[in-house]
Amino acid sequence: DTQVIYEKYLEDLTKKREQYLKQWQTTESRLADVKKILRTPIALRTVGSVQLADYHRQVEDLEKEACRWKELWNQSNQYSDYANSVIHALEVRYNKIINERIRL
Predict the structure, then answer these.
(1) CB 14 within 8 A of CB 74
(2) Which pLDDT tens digits describe the chain residue by residue (104 residues)?
(3) Residue 75 burial (CB count, 10 A)
(4) What DSSP assignment string belongs to 18-41?
């Protein structure tokens, strides 16, 4: 049954959406931690230029990673919306068929 397939797909997609959101939030948190270090004057005076450059690279990498997780999350939301609309259309169609059979 097509509806069962879409419902299973939607269930799996919901798990992935939650995973993407969690990864995105975790990455944003790590990014905030690194940025906090870069905003701390005493930390900037105590780290060497190599470590400072490493922190800046981490910021760039984490920003890219956060963007990737956000894009995956947004994309999964679109797929979820589509799956929900298909399920709804199937339910409407099924109900229409049932109602026609009841009339006969």
Answers:
(1) no
(2) 788 888 899 999 999 999 999 999 999 999 999 999 888 887 777 778 888 889 999 999 999 999 999 999 999 999 999 999 999 999 898 889 888 888 87
(3) 13
(4) HHHHHHHHHHHHHHHHHHHHHH-H
How close are the terminal C-alpha atoms of the chain, in Å? 24
Q: Residue 59: how many CB atoms within 10 A of its CB?
A: 16
Question: Distance between CA 93 and CA 98 in Å, rounded?
Answer: 9
For the entire predicted model, the pTM comes to: 0.74
Neighbours of 20 (CB within 10 A): 20
How many whole angstroms separate alpha carbon 42 and alpha carbon 33?
15
In the chain the beta strands, taken as DSSP E runs, fall at none
Amino acid present at 16: K
